Amino acid sequence: MPKVEPPKRDQDRRSGIGLTDACRPARRRNRPGNPGRAAHEAGPAHPPMPPQAPRDKKPHRQGRRRTAHYAAVRQSLGEPDPFRLLYKAKLRALVRKVITGGMGRKQAVATILSWSNEHIPPMDRQAFIGIVEKALVGLHEANFTRRQIRPSEFSAWQKAWQAS
After folding, report:
1. For residues 104 and 101, what is the distance between their CA atoms, to the nearest angstrom?
2. pLDDT grade, residue 75 (50/70/90)?
């Protein structure tokens, strides 16, 4: 009878055999060049399904209602603002910079002006500054995660913003 070593880890205690002994057959099976290595060579795991009879192609009333509802909702939302789409990444970066920096109102205004002078063309600068200020004023506990900001960063910024 072979000598059995006492288990050394929790996994070994639960299984009754050593983990290395349990993995040994799998190691042999998964060596390169072994014909049993690739699962796709063994064939399908389940037999193929039998072909089904074709269904009727009639449109359903519920599907038409959903389509009409979707069209109505889309029309009520309107088209996205092309200016916001153009500067989406820059807006996110600047708002994130202000918040992670823990800036108060005066410091934020100075940062917004200097950043927009460097990165935004002069003809779009005023509109961009307005959008950034509106985004900062509109931030609260329910929507700050849209800006990819952690709760700790937001609470620190909010204290600095309200103190100034």
Report:
1. 9
2. confident
Distance of alpha carbon 35 from alpha carbon 28, whole angstroms: 11
Helix (H, G, I), strand (E, B) or coil at 149: coil
- Burial class of residue 111 (count of CB atoms within 10 Å of its CB; 0-12, 13-18, 19+): middle
CB 12 within 8 A of CB 4: no
- CA gap 112, 115 in Å, rounded: 5
**Could you tell me where the DSSP H helices lie in the chain?**
10-15, 19-29, 61-77, 82-86, 88-100, 105-119, 125-137, 151-163
pLDDT exceeding 70 applies to what percent of the chain?
Answer: 66
User: Residue 18 phi/psi, 5° resolution?
Assistant: -70, 150
Q: At what angle do helices 88-100 and 151-163 cross, to 10 degrees?
A: 70
Q: What is the predicted pLDDT for the residue at 127? A: 95
